[in-house]
Write a structure and sequence with these properties.
Elements lengths: L2 E5 L2 E3 L5 E8 L7 E7 L6 E6 L6 E3 L7 E6 L4 E6 L8 E8 L15 E2 L3 E5 L2
Amino acid sequence: QVQLVESGGGLVQPGGSLRLSCAASGGTFSTYTMAWFRQAPGTEREFVAATRRNGASTHYADSVKGRFTISRDNAKNTVYLQMNSLKPEDTAVYYCAADRGIILSSIRVPHQYDYWGQGTQVTVSS
């Protein structure tokens, strides 16, 4: 059983930056695909970014490409999401997710992930 705990959310002005962290425990971290999703009120949970096990590859939603960077530190069992040039439309609860057996074609599908964190709120507003 894998436990995920996100941190780093908060209130930031448009154009600002935040770094989210997700600390994992209870599994062999390096063998898991790790991802970030987000959900704004009244919307579906949407894919933001993912990193395959051992950081072999990274994947981004078009809406965040060039602004967000996902990275992982397998020694610290932690995945990060560096968010730059934030926009009001980035406002959402951000969730960390993990799965060991997910295939590449499903990497953007929320229900394919077995483990989820509790979420951290990101608000972009002046």
